[in-house]
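Contributing new records

If you add data, match the layout below exactly. Sequence lines come first and carry their own label; structure lines follow with theirs. Keep one chain per record. Anything else will be rejected by the validation script.
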Amino acid sequence: MRVSETLIVIIILAIFLSVLLSTSSPVTIITHYADTYGVKREIPIAIALAESNLNPEAHNASSSASGIFEFLNGSFQYWCIDKYGITHSMEYKNYPAVQAKCAIRMLADGHIDAWNESSTTWKTLIKET
């Protein structure tokens, strides 16, 4: 296979994965990224359950926290846009695949403390699994 053919195959696979993840359930998306980044699946699933009950439309009435991992606007900007470059715009803040990839990258890098406020709940969920 020539380089140009290989590049076309890679692009097609990337598009397929993008479409698959955009239409998948939050658990499927979380599982995919947990496996990709070597994070135990139950941790991000428990955090997302505690934060939003896996609801991509979740929104905290008293803050800017929203999405399956309840990212605050400032946290999303710092981690998901500036640090990891997962997206380029706040427009994608509540996309489950974007939040999952960012949150799991954070977990893989040891930033589990970002979800300290809900830790009593998600730690209990982990113990129940």
